[in-house]
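Hello again, I could really use a second opinion on something today. My current little project is about how a certain protein chain folds up. You're getting the sequence in one-letter code plus the fold written as tokens. Here's the protein in full, and shout if anything looks odd to you:
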Amino acid sequence: MTAPLDGVTVVDLSSGIAGGYCTRLLADGGAHVIKVEGPEGDPLRTWSASGAHVDAVAGGPLFSFLAGGKHSVVVDPAAADDLAFVDGLLAGADAVIWSPGSALTGLAALDPRQLHTRHPHLVVTAITPFGLGGPWSDRAATEFTLQAWSGGVLGIGRGEQHRAPAHVGGQVGDWVAGAYSAAFTLAARAGGGGQLVDLSMLEAQILGLTYYPVSYFEMLGRPWRTERKPTVPGVAQAADGLVALGCGTAQQWWDLCSMSGHQEWIDEATTLTITEQANLHADELFEWLRGESVDDVRDLASAFRIPNAPVGNGANVASMDHFQERGSFTRNPRDGFLQPTHPYRLHGVELRAPAAAPRLGEHTAIHRAASSQSPAGDVAPNPLPFAGLRVLDMTTFWAGPSCTHILAMLGAEVIHLESTPRPDGTRLIAGIPVSEPQWWEQSPIFSGLNTDKKSLTLDFQTEAGRELLNRLIPTCDVIVENFTPRVIDQLGLSFEHARQLRDDIVMVRMPGFGLDGPWRDNPAFAYIIEDAAGLSWLTGYPDRTPYEPYSVGDPNAGIHALTALLLALEHRRRTGEGVLVEAAMVDAALNIAAEQVIEYSAHGALLQRAGNRGPAAAPQNIYQARGIDEFGRDDTWVAVAVATDEQWVALREALGSPDWAMDTQLETAAGRRAHQDLLDEHLAAWCRTRSADEIVETLWPAGVPVAKVLQPHRQTEIPQLAHRGFFEEVEHPVNPTAPHSTMPVRLSTGPGRVHRMPAPLLGEHNREILRELGLTDSEIAELKADGVIGTEPAMGGRRKAAR
């Protein structure tokens, strides 16, 4: 058996986490990755988030994890022969992953647009902060300042109003950008022919850290959140440690009230949101939790089916019973530290086993001696690479629909399956009063996630519904579902059952915690996944419990599931075999939180949250600016991050070379890190007397990474996004025309417009799809009369039409 990408060659011209993780995912899929480095090597080789000393030639633990199984060749960017050698590698490759920031990729001959022109057969994926063109394309940025520009720092109301907003720790934006890059590289290959894939890390963060805030604001006339409040309960202090609890639905809030002995808090008639109700009773809830053990709280919550998890970090996550039973961690084959296993499982399909990372230049001689063989002749790429693919989308909320949404935007026929008793949960969370006509059609979140899809309602809890589902499945290439395993077991909709109906079906299952293990049937929302995997641990301030990111767990699961699906489709193309894909949300999260367990097992260093400081830059922080925000508050902020010595010189000169900044100890990263309190004191004072615009206009042209901490619904005011057409106006039969975000990439062959259809009305395509299955109009009418199909929610039970 061969891996899905066996025989595919990828040249890696990237540096850092995003490119490293992208090519790691491609290598795991079987691709032969040749990492091309300058004599100094990828800076990631010398990286350690804890500051531990590492071998620059062998590479430190994070490099060892990301570069496992790759080849390394060293070239001199000043040598013409070496550039000709690189050109030969590219001529024989199928794809190249490129990012700026090295002497090598700074050469005009290796600009990604030049590579695309010179080697039209290649998929060229460029990973840059803002995209290859546009007014911000050459501006300085770090993962931290991109979070600020994206709105992700304020996006979900994370934090507390009395202190600076807090970014999501762990350089999560770089990992998410890498995951998107891998998926879109495979998507471009699926279209055939060469393609330039222009990925914006800013746009990846918008999709990964904010929840369709522009569509929400434009459609409903109000922002999702107006102030920062900690999640309640969220991560809470129990008697013997931290425990995470969450309420994603009204029922879960009512159950939490009962579980804590406060049934009097239940008010089914209230107009308050779940969050607002929980905050009213936060003090009593936290007092109750402090008197209970973690195990008792989790046992109770599981019995009530309330999402819960232990709070993972680098020291404890690998020892948790669920991850041990599932084999979620393995030893690095070269260096022996613990690292996560693959972020998804393709049952019956080989993914590459962990392999040693290369020493700097280890394979140079081998590749210089080899002769490159160009891939097969050029094929005109399809601007809609998934045209002709039919997908049965049995998903709900955010994680599953975000996976199938990209398929729909790139041409697949995606049938979003709901039922009238149980419509997609995102239809129900917009805060639209049920007295409003067609209130269920007015959710900006549903609209943002489901353009270009069709809607079929089918109550497969009924015999007639199950019979129709069994007739529909053979017409589909792919099934994607994100129910808990328990629900699928009860329905009998297993992969084996689906395969009896269509032998080559690809079924993607996206449970929260996987198909086996002691947490298998636990309900899982994004924040619980973040808690368990360690993403919450690094977010917030050291003097209190962690803040939950409350965002990245879902879209991160969706983009990893898409990568797994594309690997499965490639396997089917080569073998004709169907594939079961297990894309557990928590496995994807463990991979983007990998650095914590790697640092702890390699160096004994437990990474800690540090507010807005971080290991990649010093100074790095969020500072208050002068000015009143749109809500009438003295609450305006900027993010500043100095990642290099050159940026430090630029900063102090932009400040006017004040005496405090001229201390020679501050000329090195180590010196600046040792004096962060001093730097924060002076920078905070300087920023407080200036507006956010003044600060950006002073520092950014000088080359200092800086950003306004943007309210997420103001993303349309970013000129770079306008230049790239990231938002498209979408008309809708019920809702006002509103801008909708698209994809974080621009493809050289298009499509020119991504949103071809608005999100569907509930059951809008019932007749069309059922007639394709051979049903007559009278049979369809009977199904509607019996409540098997419908176009209105039947909340509380199946609603039969009046006869």
User: Anything to note?
Assistant: The longest helix spans residues 553-575. The longest strand covers residues 32-37. The chain has 30 helices and 24 strands.
